[in-house]
Design goal:
This protein is an alpha/beta fold. About 45% of the residues lie in helices and about 20% in strands. A hairpin with a 4-residue loop joins strand 5 (about 165-175) and strand 6 (about 180). The two termini are about 30 Å apart.
Length: about 180
């Protein structure tokens, strides 16, 4: 089995009801605070369009890793201004990220062992996998996520019951391997 030399970065945004948005990072783009702010703007627009009942309330919780783009002051100010509560990834707990135990394995299962000739082929296959995920799958993912968060001492029962949690994560996709690369 050969690894494809083609790679692309996909950012997914989802909540308990399903996929909210996804986007592919342009080749060569550095993920910095400025790019992350664009991702947050994209998230807000997707929420406005796909979850209009959540839009006026501005009560979104974003779970992301503690990477520098996520913890930048500009990101924190933007989030506060737009009512986005930030729930950081607990340190040394990579298995808590929903993409690590939910999205990545589903994509990897389909893409593993395949070789792609173009980035567009990788993107198309990845989109099809994401679109095939059912709402019940996302609900199960959040049930597992709540248990994992509680195991590390973060009680989110009320938070999860009353607020829509949006998760932003990314992965690098090649033909034989899908490796978590960047989780927002």
């Amino acid at each position: 089995m050969f690894k494809s030399k083609l790679k692309c970065l996909l950012i997914t945004l989802f909540d308990v009801k399903g996929l909210v948005n996804y986007e592919f990072v342009p080749e060569g783009q550095t993920i910095n605070q400025h790019y992350y702010l664009d991702v947050l703007r994209s998230l807000r627009e997707a929420v406005r369009q796909k979850r209009p009942e959540k839009w006026p309330k501005k009560n979104c919780v974003l779970h992301h890793y503690n990477a520098r783009p996520h913890t930048a002051v500009t990101v924190q100010l933007y989030s506060a201004k737009h009512g986005i509560a930030l729930l950081p990834q607990p340190p040394y707990s990579p298995d808590i990220a929903p993409n690590d135990f939910f999205v990545y394995p589903k994509i990897k299962k389909v893409l593993k062992g395949r070789r792609f000739d173009s980035i567009s082929e990788i993107k198309e296959n990845s989109k099809n996998i994401l679109k095939s995920l059912k709402d019940e799958d996302f609900q199960r993912c959040f049930d597992i996520w709540k248990k994992k968060m509680e195991q590390v001492g973060i009680a989110i029962v009320l938070l999860v019951s009353h607020i829509s949690e949006f998760l932003v994560h990314g992965y690098r996709s090649g033909s034989g391997l899908t490796t978590p690369y960047f989780a927002l």
